[in-house]
Amino acid sequence: MGRLVALTLLGASLAFIGARLLDLRERINTFREVEPVEPQNCHLIEGIENGSEDIDILPSGLAFISSGLKYPGLPNFAPDEPGKIFLMDLNEQNPRAQVLKISGGFDKELFNPHGISIFIDKDHTVYLYVVNHPHMKSTVEIFKFEEQERSLIHLKTIKHELLVSVNDIVVLGPEQFYATRDHYFTNFFLIFLEIILDLHWSYVLFYSPKEVKVVAEGFASANGITVSSDQKYVYLADVAAKSIHIMEKHDNWDLTQLKVIQLGTFADNLTVDPATGDILAGCHPNAMKLFFYNPEDPPGSEVLRIQHVLSEKPRVSTLYANNGSVLQGSTVASVYQGKILMGTVFHKALYCEL
């Protein structure tokens, strides 16, 4: 009798796992390909070879690019090289990427940069906040940008028990930011189980020196986060659910969900077009190709523009799509005066004039 029960439980478990794997195959767009949508005036940025995971652009046209992310389950073409922050001046006729020097006693050998966010103080001082993963942990590093010297001065490392598996941040005040936790577990096997079971245990937290709290939860994988131009709304990419959440920001920093925009692709990082207020999303059209990398059949790239985000019918259009022959694994797109920068998780970066 005991053996029969054990076999019954085993069979039920295998059937359940098999059903979840079949469901996962559909959820990760295993067979999806993209039709090319490519602007005429594009070129890859020389010097960026190992990722450009996140991009943030100052109103002056200076673009910060995080590069060299080492993330569990994803390829890395330079595993022994520390991460870098690049700078590009988009006002130049042929902008080039320059590695920013980092000072202030920061351990550059353990630099593993992920999401970034710019904050401009009342005295016009520019600070760059960077999600960092030293030893695969999560911290937030605060740097002061020295424009004349083209360098970053490390000021502070922020740690907290809720800052776990941090993916992206958006800074709204001095040491005040929202951060996303993309997975509940930190063990790779448990993360895989979390994905298979489609657990919605991911969240957004608010951090300040006086208060740290979860302000929105129930996401499959909270990823890129940004804020509207008027700072009234927060936009969040739930990458695993292929959706973007529009949330209202309250005076106590809590977030209330207003709507969800469903996509057919995996939105990673989000930015806002300062001229129009539109959301730009760097996306992964096929997650299977991303996590099971094959250089002969690489993951493609996709950039979407979402217009009229607060209306009943937001308009979603494709700005860029490529099957991986040019750009692999796009994560972000950011615009400045008719120019667009597109970044990737582990590959190159692309510059286009729209």
So what's the overall shape? Answer: globular
Q: For the CA atoms, what is the radius of gyration?
A: 20 Å
CATH architecture: 6 Propeller
**What would the average pLDDT be, to the nearest integer?**
92
Write the CATH fold name.
Neuraminidase
CATH superfamily: TolB, C-terminal domain
Proportion in β-strands: 35-45%
Which sheet architecture does the biggest sheet show? 5 strands, mixed
Spans of at least 5 consecutive residues with low confidence:
10-16
In whole angstroms, the N-to-C terminal distance is: 70 Å
Order of helices and strands: HEEEEEEEEEEEEHEEEEEEEEHEEEEE
CATH class: Mainly Beta
- Say how many strands there are: 25
* Helix-and-strand structural type: mainly beta
Number of helices in the DSSP assignment = 3
Spatial strand order of the main sheet? 6-10-9-8-7
Provide the helix percentage: 10-25%
Total separate domains? 1
Please provide a written account of the structure.
The protein is mainly β and 354 residues long. The radius of gyration is 20 Å and the shape is globular. A five-stranded mixed beta sheet has the order 6-10-9-8-7, with no helix packed on it. Strands 1-25-24-23 form a four-stranded antiparallel beta sheet, with no helix packed on it. The chain has helices at residues 2-27, 188-196, 287-291; strands spanning 41-44, 54-57, 62-67, 84-89, 98-99, 101-103, 113-120, 126-132, 139-146, 151-158, 166-173, 176-181, 202-207, 212-219, 222-227, 233-238, 243-249, 255-262, 266-272, 279-284, 301-307, 315-322, 330-336, 339-344, 350-353. A hairpin with a 4-residue loop joins strand 16 (233-238) and strand 17 (243-249). It has a single domain (32-353), classed as TolB, C-terminal domain (Neuraminidase, 6 Propeller), CATH 2.120.10. Mean pLDDT is 92; it is low at 10-16. The chain has three helices and 25 strands.
